[in-house]
Write a structure and sequence with these properties.
Elements (H helix, E strand, L loop, with lengths): L9 H9 L10 E2 L10 H18 L1 E3 L3 H10 L2 E3 L2 E3 L4 H9 L3 E4 L8 E4 L2 E4 L7 E4 L3 E4 L2 H13 L21 H12 L4 E2 L5 H15 L1 H5 L4 E6 L5 E2 L1 H12 L3 E5 L1 E3 L8 H22 L5 E4 L1 E5 L6 E2 L3 H17 L3 E4 L10 H17 L3 E3 L4 E2 L4 E3 H17 L7 H4 L1 H7 L9 H6 L15 H6 L5 H15 L7 H16 L7
Parallel strand pairs: 2-12, 7-19, 8-21, 10-11, 11-13, 13-15, 14-16, 15-18, 18-19
Antiparallel strand pairs: 1-7, 2-4, 3-4, 5-6, 8-9, 16-17, 20-21
Helix pairs in contact: 2-10, 4-10, 5-6, 6-7, 6-19, 7-9, 10-11, 11-12, 12-13, 13-18
Length: 511
């Protein structure tokens, strides 16, 4: 029999292990479970047909960019003013003939490069919040220090495969220059892949130029090192800022997530099929345009959909209807043959409470089952995206760990079948001390570092902490123990020189 007596110091060691981030070697997830489908062939064809009708009969506006209109005209679209009406089948034909079904986004550490598309899933932090929140200081405007902290936290966990983009808005820096500091933070404080700036075409170009310094100009001519979020102004509008950024990235062989942004009832119809049709039409037009600009440039079918409180008009998250939309458009992306992006840990809660947990778990689980390839907003999101929470970030990392574990599927090896264990134990005994249990106990089950599964008495003795309090301790410990990845000093110096010269070349502005 195995001696299962506790050694002295075992509880303290166990507690220390419990509070430490888990380790894994995977740079991204290769899913071993099937995608969940909700519509049959007839239903999907109906959505596709309706989207094509929207493009041909109603059209999409490409605003403020004459070159974009000329590109569409040369492709065979009907142009009236800024309205582009696209012949049925044109978008699908251009996308299918040119857009890659999957691609590698290279990280400066080659071991952390990710493959986007196919059976792969990449988990990415939340994006775009002007506020941050933590248990100590409450809600406040984000700073560049907060931004760097979240980059460090994302780097420190194995369950997020990407550094992300605008994790939060550092409002202590000028609007027209903060992109330099954000992109540099991803480059310096992490060696995972990152996202680029899209708030102006020249900021997209700055991202490309900085990436050339980091990776080498020749390397990025034939390799993707940046992925960026290009949002439609739903319904059915692409504005000059997004069009300009998309053109910069596509022409430099860098990836764009072409993503409609629909709050059903405000920016799309209230019904599921209608929202899915509009989303698909918008995405088709954006992805096709990227291929007209630069055939073969990596592109991801993105989507963001939420429902709306019909009483207050505020967006709501974690409800069934957006999840049904998600399953539909995920299936459409597979039929089209392009990678798919959606979120994430979405919720409308103001603090990391039960509402935040329930709504986030709903959106994360459905995105996982739908087969999302690039899961933006995996960790940190609060308040409908207005706040990035330190404690929620840690709670969501735990959920990301469960996604990593679930998508590995079922182990059917000899060890996984466990027949020897069943023979060894036999009827009426227990498996606690058998060889199979002893050799697998460390890896048999996912081990949360934030949940408390001890007795009531032990929980009381440990300080009666709730989940948020435990998360508060964990993120502080992670930042204390953070060690930056190495970077070539000459490259770092070149990046800083580039940033300084560019910042000095134009005045600060808050627009």
């Amino acid at each position: 029999m195995v001696d299962r007596g506790r050694k002295r110091g075992g509880r303290a060691a166990k507690k220390k292990e419990h509070e430490s981030p888990q380790k894994t070697e995977a740079a991204y997830i290769i899913r071993k479970v099937p995608e969940y489908e909700i519509l049959d062939e007839e239903g999907l064809k109906l959505i596709e047909s309706n989207a094509e009708k929207i493009l041909q009969e109603i059209g999409v506006e490409f605003r403020g960019d004459k070159e974009a209109l000329d590109i569409w005209k040369n492709a065979g679209a009907d142009i009236k003013g800024e309205r582009v009406r696209i012949p049925i089948g044109l978008c699908k034909k251009v996308i299918k003939e040119n857009a890659p079904s999957e691609f590698v986004q290279h990280a400066r550490n080659p071991e952390k490069s990710v493959k986007i598309g196919g059976k792969n899933t990449v988990l990415v932090p939340a994006y775009g919040s002007p506020f941050v929140r933590d248990l100590d200081k409450g809600r406040r405007y984000a700073t560049i220090n907060d931004f760097q902290n979240f980059v460090k936290l994302a780097y420190s966990t194995p369950f997020l495969h990407h550094s992300g983009g605008t994790i939060c808005e550092p409002v202590d820096l000028p609007v027209n220059k903060r992109h330099f500091d954000m992109v540099y933070s991803h480059m310096r404080y992490s060696d995972k892949p990152y996202m680029g700036s899209v708030t102006a075409p020249e900021r997209a170009q700055d991202t490309v130029d900085m990436s050339k310094i980091l990776f080498g100009e020749e390397f990025i001519k034939s390799n993707t090192v940046v992925i960026s979020l290009i949002n439609a102004n739903s319904p059915l509008v692409w504005d000059a800022t997004m069009i300009g950024a998309l053109k910069i990235y596509a022409r430099n062989n860098q990836a764009c997530v072409v993503s409609p942004f629909c709050i059903a009832g405000a920016m799309s119809p209230v019904t599921i099929a209608a929202t899915a049709s509009q989303l698909y039409a918008e995405a088709l037009s954006g992805m096709c345009f990227s291929q007209l600009v630069c055939p073969g440039a990596p592109v991801v079918f993105g989507t963001f959909s939420s429902s709306m409180s019909m009483q207050s008009g505020a967006p709501s998250f974690g409800t069934p209807e957006p999840q049904l939309v998600l399953y539909i458009v995920a299936a459409l992306s597979r039929r089209l043959g392009v990678p798919f992006r959606s979120g994430g840990g979405l919720n409308g809660a103001k603090i990391p409470d039960a509402q935040a947990a329930y709504e986030s778990a709903n959106t994360l689980q459905h995105a996982m089952l739908a087969g999302v390839n690039f899961m933006l907003h995996t960790a940190g999101w609060l308040e409908g995206g207005l706040s990035m929470s330190y404690e929620k970030f840690i709670m969501d990392i735990d959920q990301a760990g469960m996604i990593n574990s679930f998508l590995k599927g079922i182990d059917l090896s000899e060890n996984g079948q466990g027949m020897e264990a069943i023979k060894e134990v036999g009827p009426g005994n227990h498996f606690l001390g058998c060889d199979h249990t002893q050799s697998n106990f460390k890896s048999a089950f996912y081990r949360s570092n934030i949940a408390d599964n001890n007795s009531f008495e032990q929980w009381e003795a440990d300080g009666k902490m709730d989940t948020t309090q435990r998360a508060n301790k964990i993120w502080k410990k992670m930042l204390r123990e953070y060690v930056p990845p190495k970077i070539d000093p000459a490259i770092d110096e070149a990046l800083n020189e580039f940033i300084q010269k560019r910042k000095e070349s134009f005045p600060d502005a808050n627009y």
